[in-house]
Design a protein that fits this description.
Butyryl-Coa Dehydrogenase, subunit A, domain 1, Butyryl-CoA Dehydrogenase, subunit A, domain 2, alpha+beta, globular, 3 domains, 11 helices
Length: 382
């Protein structure tokens, strides 16, 4: 793995920084406080090629490698984590499974519009009774001639309210457990598809998190993604990529918190000198910097491994586990450095602190990541 950025990667990063400076930074705090979905910014990301960043050009995407995408994710999330999660869900959880498992007709109809930002996607796996136990979903899909009829409820779905297309998992053979789950491409316009409760969240307030309800939802049989009863394999493969994206989001949150803390520590004076000159503050900043760099290496390694087509489940879990928990530690210290001001919404670290919290929960809790890592470790030691 080459740690030196390529010219293309540096160009992408510089382009995003300019976009953030002009378009995102001036509105992020206000829109987040108002829980306002950033329609115009999402459209702009699509025009920049960042809503289908690593999807091949011939399928309508930008054809970036995964490392370039991860760098882009970190930069966007550093400015506004809500925008970052909208971007990563569309890339990793909506576009990627269609790219990997979709047939040519599905790619033409859905992948190109999703990758170009003309449609927005979401990923509907979690249910009220099935969070970490993804194989325990209760949503059912039964064949009815040329359609499947879906019945069930999905919970905590990022982009759920705004999405045009959902990747939905449902049980097609109740006798086979996890081996009886199938994946479907479901349009919001399909009869029987309803958006339910919109969650009022602690953080990521600029992205919507919704309940999706399916009541005899009629899905054409040609919208079955991959092979019937092999949806759980699709879900696990998709989550490998999604977890790398969340690790990059966590990196962005942490880097944003560190940057703010350093700037504040140099400016804030107590006892006649900047607090950055005090050893206690320097120690916190040094730990924050070291943890961010360590998490970045883990995340970049996981992205590089997936780009090479190598088994990446354990690497992705390690990256997601460490980066998410690191982001919470870094954001905590950033608030501490700001003192009382860190508790005030006017200052950016308050938002970083709230946004960091979700990263240890979604796309697999830290406890699930540890289970995945340990399972792979036990299998590798004979």
């Amino acid at each position: 793995m080459n740690l030196q950025r390529t010219e293309e990667q540096q160009m992408v990063v510089e382009t995003i920084k300019l976009f953030i400076e002009k378009e995102v930074a001036p509105v992020a705090a206000k829109m987040d406080a108002a829980s306002e979905f950033p329609h115009a910014l999402v459209k702009a990301l699509g025009e920049m090629g960042l809503m289908g960043a690593f999807i091949p050009v011939e399928e309508g995407g930008s054809g970036m490698d995964l490392l370039t995408y991860i760098l882009a994710m970190e930069e966007v999330s550093k400015a506004w984590a809500s925008l970052g999660v909208i971007m990563t869900v569309n890339n990793s959880l909506a576009c990627d499974p269609i790219h990997r498992f979709g047939n040519p007709a599905q790619k033409q109809k859905y992948l190109a519009p999703l990758a170009q930002g003309r449609l927005l996607g979401c990923y509907a796996l979690t249910e009220p009774g099935a969070g970490s136990d993804a194989g325990g979903i209760a949503t059912r899909a039964r064949r009815d001639g040329g359609h499947y009829l879906l019945n069930g409820t999905k919970l905590f779905i990022t982009n759920g309210k705004q999405a045009d297309v959902a990747i939905v998992y449902a049980v097609t053979d109740p006798t086979r457990g996890k081996k009886g789950i199938s994946a479907f491409i479901v349009e919001k316009a399909f009869p029987g598809f309803h958006v339910g409760k919109i969650e009022d969240k602690m953080g990521l307030r600029g992205s919507d998190t919704a309940e999706l309800i399916f009541q005899e939802c009629r899905v054409p049989a040609e919208n079955l993604l991959g092979v019937e009863n092999e949806g759980f394999k699709i879900a696990l493969s998709t989550l490998d990529g999604g977890r790398i994206g969340i690790a990059a989001q966590a990196l962005g949150i942490a880097q944003g918190a560190l940057d703010a803390a350093v700037a504040y520590a140099k400016e804030r004076k107590q006892f006649g000198r900047p607090i950055a000159e005090f050893q206690a503050i320097q120690s916190m900043l040094a730990d924050m910097k070291t943890e961010i760099d360590a998490a970045r290496l883990l995340t970049h390694r996981a992205a590089w491994m997936r780009q090479q087509g190598r088994p990446v489940t354990a690497w992705a879990a390690q990256a997601k586990l460490y980066a998410s928990e690191m982001a919470n530690r870094v954001a905590y210290k950033a608030v501490q450095i700001f003192g009382g001001y860190g508790f005030i919404k006017e200052f950016p670290v308050e938002r970083f602190y709230r946004d960091a919290r979700i990263t240890t929960l979604y796309e697999g809790t830290s406890e699930v990541q540890r289970m995945v890592i340990a399972r792979h470790l036990m299998q590798s030691v004979r």
